Amino acid sequence: MKKEMKHGFKKLGVIVNTAKQNASSAVKELLYAAKKYGMQIFLEKSSADFLGEKNAIPFSKMLKVIDLLISIGGDGTVLRVARELNGKNIPILGINIGGLGFLTSVSEKEIRKSLLNLSRGEYRLSHRSVLNIVHKNKNTGVIKNYRALNDAVIGRESASRMLTLEVSVNRTVVTSYRCDGIIISTPTGSTGHSLSAGGPILPPETDVFVLTLICPHTLSWRPLVISDCNEIIVKAVSNAPQRLTIDGQVGDVVAEGDEIFFTRSPKGVSFVHMPDYSYFDVLRRKLNWSVSNSRV
Is 75 a catalytic residue? Predict the structure, then answer.
């Protein structure tokens, strides 16, 4: 992660999860700080309607004028914003008014200080890899494309039948798994669904993917870490009802014989952090890791 001192941000796009309890107060604090530090705010329609503001701007037009996109909510809001950016080179700042918040590094009480830093060009950029996913339907020939910042999950839709999934790397078959599903995760997503299924924690700058099974029917299985310069292919062998889910938000039904291809996208996502941000500090706080008394 590089410390950037080149320029301050002046034009800020704002996306708000209006369902969050503190959304209104967080946005008002942001608007106050932006005005104080000479920044221009652009609100997309749902956020503007929520605040009773009339100066809404369509999201597509917003992306043409802003130099920073601010997500106010939780990690789910950040994932949605990253997907809607669709590879555009606009960094994201996540303000956390949600739950755990691995992707949202600024709290509501830190908004004013953070905008001062941004106006001065005092921030760090963290560049994250993104999964490019191609779902090829065997029967219809339809091809669907997705981008995932966190992960892609192929899981069963029925509680009664196990899946059989064949995994290949660069067209070489690795093995077939009998399981409830498989998670293909980026380093950013390694603290999400993959972690809860027994996968490793990967620092964000690591150039790898991790394959983690959900309830595998074997005692010899271990998570598989693969360089992200490789292509991973997962084929649905069984005819059990199953589904592809991207970042826990979008996806499609997977049929027997379908193949899903996973590669690293040439266009990633950049996050803005404050100068004192530390990924390992975040891990320690969020996962309640302890430190020795000599370090307290």
Answer: yes
Pick from 95, 279, 119, 122: nearest CA to 204: 279
Q: How far apart are the C-alpha atoms of 47 and 27, rounded to whole Å?
A: 9
What is the Cα 68 distance to its own chain's centre?
A: 17
Q: Write out pLDDT tens, residues 103-140.
A: 998 999 999 999 999 999 999 999 999 999 999 988 88
Specify whether 102 is located in the same domain as 140: no
Q: What CATH number should be reported for the domain holding residue 211?
A: 2.60.200.30
- The answer to whether 182 and 234 have CB atoms below 8 angstroms apart is yes
Residue 227 lies in domain: 131-264
How crowded is residue 267: how many other Cβ atoms within 10 Å of its Cβ? Answer: 13
CATH of the domain at 30: 3.40.50.10330
pLDDT band at 101 (very low <50, low <70, confident <90, very high): confident
Q: Is 230 helix (H, G, I), strand (E, B) or coil?
A: coil
pTM value is: 0.90
Given the residues 67, 75, 151, 180, select the one marked as catalytic. Answer: 75
In total, how many domains does the chain have?
Answer: 2
User: How far is CA 57 from its chain centroid?
Assistant: 24
- Report the distance separating Cα 87 and Cα 92, nearest Å: 12
Asked whether residue 100 falls in the same domain as residue 49, the answer is yes
pLDDT per residue as tens digits for the range 139-181: 888 889 999 999 999 999 877 789 999 999 999 999 999 999 9
